[in-house]
TrEMBL record:
[4Fe-4S] cluster binds at C156, C223. Residues 68-377 form the Dihydroxy-acid/6-phosphogluconate dehydratase N-terminal domain. This is Phosphogluconate dehydratase. InterPro entries: 6-phosphgluc_deHydtase, Dihydro-acid_dehy_C, DiOHA_6PGluconate_deHydtase_CS, ILV_EDD_C, ILV_EDD_N, IlvD/EDD_N. Residues 555-574 are annotated as: Disordered. It holds the Pfam family ILV_EDD_C.
Amino acid sequence: MKPLNDTIHRITERVIANSRDSRGRYLELMEREADRQPDRTQVSCSNLAHAYAGVPEDQSALTAAKGPNLGIVTAYNDMLSAHQPYARYPERMKIWAREVGATAQVAGGTPAMCDGVTQGEDGMELSLFSRDVIALSTGIALSHQMYDGMALLGICDKIVPGLMIGALRFGHLPAIFVPSGPMPSGIPNKQKQAVRQLYAEGKADRAQLLESEIASYHSPGTCTFYGTANSNQMMMEMMGLHVPGAAFVPPGVSLRQQVTRAAVHRLAAMERGGDDYRPMARVVDEKAIVNAAIGLLATGGSTNHAIHIPAMARAAGIAFDWNDLADLSRVVPLVARVYPNGSGDVNHFHAAGGMAYVIGTLLDEGLAHGDILTVWDGGFEAYAKEPVETDDAVEWRDPGTSGDAEMLRPASDPFQADGGMRLVEGNLGRACFKSSAVERERWTVEAPCRVFETQHAVSQAFAKGELDRDVVVVVRFQGPRANGMPELHKLTPPLGVLQDRGYRVALVTDGRMSGASGKVPAAIHCTPEALGGGPLSLLRDGDMVRVCAETGELSTTADLSSREPAPHTDDQTGVGRELFAMFRMNADGAEQGGSSMLAMAGL
């Protein structure tokens, strides 16, 4: 095993230095919270009676204060296929807690919305701020202060970051994230993508498109493409917050039950006052945050995490920005190609060696922090092994060599030498460019721009043939303050068609794209956003715009100095959007995490 890469060491030291004051304040707060958490044996009997009334089977153990009481925060609903398996988790987890002399209660639930359902609809404008609501809901759940550990049940896009942010404010307690795994693979991904593009061109009808989509997203479990949800699970492994190898074990198999049972047992063993106390505040430190970013880069994960990682870091008192991410990308190689960056999905990735292989090869080459505190015995090296079931138990073994060299390669012989997440900046602001998803000959596009304010307007212009040329499509007023920074995934099929027709096409937007965005060069999350006078608000149709991942450039030759910002007229009423006016009004920039809650809390 090689020593830690010098550049990674220097970036980590920079993050530590930049975080010194805020991290110090956070750890002091956690020490105070630990000191002032009530001793349940001294709490008012009336308070305890209320707390224990709903769990008659555990009342005697709770009353006698026998063993730790674990709080379950669940994001269960069956609108999200990924979260549908959670319905039965609490009752099983209570049984598994009793096996080790502990108790467990459902502390509370959080909302969990499906970006796949709201994609391209008005409800998507609540998506990013749902992360703040989830964090607040987690805080409410844990405010009862009756718990000695936190079991966090969440998987999808905003849910894991929201649970993380909320739980970190109770970081004096140990915590473990409990996933449920991906659905079985559906139709081949190339077939799904082809039908989408045919529909965008008017060559497939709605019935054919719906048939294809249902064949892709067809049963309980996480969607199998490598988007934000599965990137979340990767990061939990990279931070040591899972049972090793838990991320992509499918639901409904006995091994999934065994790793969940192991999670409950492990959480009980980490209780405060025990011999192996591991508070979340100590597990999620600067090195863990850097490891999460390294995993994102090494696997070509979702660009949404350029927003989520800084937000999660802030909740732990850690300063991490796009300079850190871009600098890490220069030395972290791309070792995985998972759809949409490759042909196989997360089930194929897991079968080929999955996270155990990724972590092992990164550690071998000195490309990840191996000395982080994790929730599991054996440190981070334990995460370089995969779980297997033997005689109704679970053991961990070395995954061996890659089972598919088209999907997983060693860090010593990667798909590309860098992590493919680049910072582009210039007189149009700062933005992220996911170069790992784009052919290198398309990393530079310079063309007249066409400016839009909705993705629907882009689709209409495409249908009329107005974009059949070299063009930089600018979609503005999509930032956190304008409309909640929705994901603009519906732009991908028409822009992909234009690219396939031979045109030089790029996207520039202050909105979001996800790990599902694919092959079109895109400068996304542009900050400062257009609302409030950001540079995108000054662009006009026909201005020459240059997007270049090679040189890190996002610029226009137009003279913006004498222009007035374009007016913003989007109506933010309906589908509950008016209720989120406070979130929009107080949100900070994308690079800071696009959060109103963290900004208002002074974090």
